[in-house]
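Quick start: read one record
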Amino acid sequence: MILFSSALEPILENKIIMNKLVIDVASEKIVLMIITKDDIYNITKDNTKINFEKLTLILSDFLNSNSLKLDDINKIYVNRGPGSNAGIRNSLSLVKAFYVARKIDYYCYSLHDFKDQKYIKHENIPYLCDKFKIKKNLIKPIYLS
């Protein structure tokens, strides 16, 4: 079987383009952010029990509004706390389901992991996870008592 370079382009293109999803429900607001090669999209929602229960729908609407699908996401970064027990549990369950169903690698971070970093922005989370060697596909939640 002979493959021409044009047959390989979509495969190579998928490897190069990395779309990252940041999920933070441990803060005062629920924050969803998509980081693409060219753009950053984000939304915030009130940090309420109802929104925790609707997190899958909120995420689906967010992806759709930016012309993306879950299959377009290559890595997920999720805040593991400290924070709301229900919110963290829901977000970690969602991310774990994406890993099992779609094999999307995830990184569970805490702002406490980024020692001596001031003014942490959500768009810097992927870089900080690399810098501080946050392990992929490992969950260690931090709940507030």
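The helical segments are 5-16, 49-53, 55-65, 85-102, 125-131.
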